[in-house]
Amino acid sequence: MSLFTAEEERRIATAIECAERATSGEIVAVIAADSDSYLFAPFMWAALAALLVPWVLIYLTWLPVQWIYLSQLAVFAALVALMLPRPVRLLLVPPSIKRQRAHRRAVEQFLVQNLHTTSGRTGVLIFVSIAERYAEVLADTAIDERVPKGTWQGIVDRLTERIGAGRAADGFIRAIEEAGKHLAAHFPPGSADPNELPNHLIVLQ
């Protein structure tokens, strides 16, 4: 995935390091190509269409049952082949399901990246899934309960605005800086402040 150049990834890593120097909290940035394969979609729609074939042929033709069955199989196979390419698959999936799958992967990454295990429960995940056009900020309990409602959504809105404008790296850096300011305000660096989690951008293919 080539959304970011090596230089942009370096800038994002630097932004995380700078933000974490001012806080005992942890910030992890993750970008995913997609949050699901959505392979179910071509088969589901092809099966639904194929179920209609016998009814049409029974009423409009005198074909024997064997030919009707073969026609049904042919329609199913042809539609699956047409709808299997990834861009087509994505168009077949309702937006609500894509949002659900992307949110699920964000939660998975929160756990996979061990943000729930930070000593002060101050982990913040900045997550983007490209195929679903989805972004989310997930924060652990200690920091989440200290920031005003809507704070994380505001960061997401500004992040997606910059991504839409073709400034994805700037969007990530700004989101990291904003999250870092909230962490620093409530959780300044302590005497023992280990860097528990990776500071680089995590790219999921």
Characterise the protein shown here.
58% of the residues lie in helices and 11% in strands. With 205 residues, it is of the alpha/beta class. It has 2 domains: 6-36 and 94-204, Diaminopimelate Epimerase, Chain A, domain 1 (Roll), CATH 3.10.310; 40-92, no CATH class. A 4-stranded mixed β-sheet has the order 3-2-1-4, with helices on both faces. Strand 2 (123-129) and strand 3 form a beta hairpin. The chain is elongated and about 80 Å long. The termini are close together. The mean pLDDT is 91.
- What CATH first level of the largest domain would be assigned? Alpha Beta
State the order of secondary-structure elements, H for helix, E for strand.
HEHHHHEEHHHE
- The biggest beta sheet, please? 4 strands, mixed
Q: Walk across the major sheet and give the strand order.
A: 3-2-1-4
What integer value in Å does the Rg equal?
23 Å
Counted up, domains total: 2
Number of helices: 8
Q: Output the CATH topology of the largest domain.
A: Diaminopimelate Epimerase, Chain A, domain 1
Question: Average pLDDT value?
Answer: 91
- Computed structural class: alpha/beta
Cα distance spanning the termini: 7 Å
Helix percentage range: 55-70%
Shape: elongated
Proportion of strand residues: 5-15%
Corresponding CATH architecture of the largest domain: Roll
Q: Can you tell me the residue ranges where pLDDT is under 50 for at least 5 consecutive residues? A: none
Strand segment count: 4
